[in-house]
């Protein structure tokens, strides 16, 4: 049985990991320790808080479904999402 079907995907993941390490090395070499101050408007903060609340509700619903044994995992959807994410990273 050949397992070459996903070789490109695995090599893409490995290349991405190496690229991230290279970027981290460059950032640490620069040694920049300047402080950056960012101000967020009240409207933007309200949107952020609303988004956090909606996310928290969704997470709580998923947790409850898992505890009740009602959460269904769709492996096809997961694999499609992973492949799409890798393709997006590679610009395909």
Automatic annotation (TrEMBL):
Residue stretches making up the Anti-sigma-28 factor FlgM C-terminal domain: 37-83
Matching SUPFAM superfamilies: Anti-sigma factor FlgM
Any GO BP annotation: bacterial-type flagellum organization
Pfam name, any one: FlgM
Alphabetical keyword list: Bacterial flagellum biogenesis, Repressor, Transcription, Transcription regulation
Source species, domain of life: Bacteria
Record flagged with keyword Lipid biosynthesis: no
Keyword Transcription regulation listed: yes
Family: Belongs to the FlgM family.
UniProt-recorded name of the protein: Negative regulator of flagellin synthesis
Species this protein is from: Alkalibacterium subtropicum
Taxonomic placement: Bacteria, Bacillati, Bacillota, Bacilli, Lactobacillales
